[in-house]
Design goal:
The protein has nine helices and 16 strands. It is of the alpha/beta class. The strands form three sheets. Strands 3, 5, 6, 7, 8, 15 and 16 form a seven-stranded mixed β-sheet that branches. A six-stranded parallel β-sheet has the order 11-10-9-12-13-14, sandwiched between helices. α6 links the parallel β13 and β14.
Length: 329
């Protein structure tokens, strides 16, 4: 191949701008493995990068896309062979390395995971970084003794990629769940995924005391700010709050009271630089015992081409996510 299509973000006088253009292998950041990309996913972080918001891309120009699935074309590392099906999430893709919004990606072997037998290339990116992150949160909660008997798990940003897959994973693991959402009209979508209760975020009484009535067994939070604070003060003794996102705010406020009077744990969830053994184990779970049912029908909102990524990214920034956009290369 001489040149191929990529969605690359450039620094311009009017700010970072995403351009659909032809690039060559010489343009890509280095790595031992060249992959013919089949699918990528559109994540909130990608939406920030593609719409020119700061904080994601470290240098320009940079091909966006923090995850992909595809087939190995060439490898100078014996761990991977041409024809092998692989996926990658995080590991600096679409941040300080060129990412998955291109027909080819070149990455360090360390960043790649063999495609689990239970997932197709499309299903792997229907889950993508969102599914991996939701699974990482569940794993950390279980390791910290979260038990269904403690009560329902509140999931915020519930219609988004992480939130919707978290609902499916929690349900499968035997937890009751409550979807806290800005889109109560998406109730049917959320219940089908596994929500036992759907709560309109606008009607939520966030309270103000250091401790409010404890109602949740634990929580998975994608919003940050005042909603995260609310969760810490309403989780029951020994429950876990998995802190994943900042779709509403980067602020972390509150008191130590939930931690020292209820033993509540605030668990940090970080999907980019993850020990390789954890990555492999989590993807095996996602392709096996934790595999959500009907991934394509329930989680995929649309399969789109590279040219449609900027408009879909605008929708995510506007909080209009519902399930996952999968990008077909
Ligand atoms: N820690 C990590 O490694 C990691 C990994 C992946 C994602 N994240 C973060 O997790 C969050 C969710 O990611 P995602 O890919 O699931 O995003 P997404 O698909 O765009 O979904 C985000 C959801 O959050 C809610 N939301 C969006 N904007 C909002 C706003 N301004 N105020 C309140 N709610 C808003 C909406 O849900 P409702 O309408 O249902 O409320 C939306 O569907 C993002 O902040 C992302 O950066 C972190």
């Amino acid at each position: 191949m001489t040149s191929f299509k990529a969605l690359r973000v450039h620094q311009t006088p009017s700010g970072p701008t995403a351009l659909l253009e032809s690039v060559t292998l010489a343009d890509l950041t280095p790595g031992e493995v060249l992959v013919r990309v089949a699918f990528s996913g559109l994540n909130y972080k990608d939406a920030l990068a593609v719409t020119g918001r700061g904080g994601v891309l470290r240098t320009y120009p940079r091909i966006a896309g923090i995850d992909f699935s595809g087939v190995v074309e060439h490898s100078s590392d014996t761990a991977f062979k041409p024809g092998e099906r692989v996926l990658a999430t995080g590991a600096g893709l679409g941040e300080w390395r060129d990412g998955g919004f291109a027909e080819y990606a070149r990455v360090p072997a360390e960043a790649l995971v063999p495609l689990p037998t239970g997932l197709s290339l499309l299903e792997a990116m229907a889950l993508g970084t969102a599914g991996f992150t939701a699974a990482l949160a569940l794993r950390r909660m279980l390791e910290n003794h979260q038990d269904p008997a403690q009560g329902p798990i509140a999931v915020t940003g519930a219609t988004g990629g992480v939130g919707s897959i978290a609902l499916a994973l929690l349900k499968r693991a035997g937890f009751a769940t409550a979807a806290i959402t800005g889109k109560p009209q998406a109730g049917a979508f959320l219940r089908e995924l596994g929500a036992d209760e759907v709560i309109d975020r606008a009607r939520l009484d966030l309270g103000s005391k250091p401790l409010e009535k404890a109602v949740w067994g634990g929580a998975v939070d994608n919003l940050g700010g005042e909603v995260l604070t609310y969760l810490t003060r309403t989780v029951k003794p020994w429950g876990n709050v998995a802190c994943i996102g900042l779709a509403q705010s980067r602020a972390l406020t509150g008191t130590v009271m939930p931690l020292i009077l209820r033993g509540v744990s605030l668990l940090g969830i970080h999907s980019v630089q993850v020990p390789r053994a954890w990555r492999l184990a989590i993807w095996e779970l996602l392709g096996g015992p934790w595999r959500p049912a009907d991934i394509e029908a329930r989680i995929v909102r649309a399969v789109i081409g590279l040219e449609s990524v900027p408009a879909a990214a605008q929708a995510l920034i506007a909080g209009q996510a519902q399930g996952r956009f999968v990008v077909r290369l």
